[in-house]
Predict the 3D structure of the following.
Amino acid sequence: MRDAALAQARADFALELEKMREDGQRSEARLQAAEKRALLEIERERAAAARLQKDLVAATRQLELRDETHRAEAEGLRTQLGDARQEVGVLQGRLNSVEATNVALIREIDALRKQLAAAPASTVVRAPGDRRPAKGRVAKLVVPLRNSHRTKVPGA
């Protein structure tokens, strides 16, 4: 009986050992599958990191190019602004000169009008080509202006 009990114990032990080996093999297979999944995940993360790094480098280059373009445009606009300010200064100077000339001419005209108003009627000059006598009508006055080669008639 002892041999039978020993044989039974050996058979039970062998059966348990076989179950444990199968469990060990299944655990090993699960471990290898988990390791493979982890390695694949690591590889995906590496690829994603490399892609993101490449995108970052490209975006940085693009940003630098845009920055350089904007700087060049800004410099061009500053140059245009300086040129425009220079031209405004020149035009302002011309305008001031024309306004001063205009004021001088207005003063001259006013002085001539005062002289004309103070002059006796016999010294009134008639318009060229007007040979008719001044009976009952006012003669057209010719007022010569300085720096003018043409004869100007007031009111005409």
Notes: Residues 2-118 form one domain. Residues 126 and 137 are 12 Å apart (CA to CA). The chain has two domains: 2-118, 122-156.
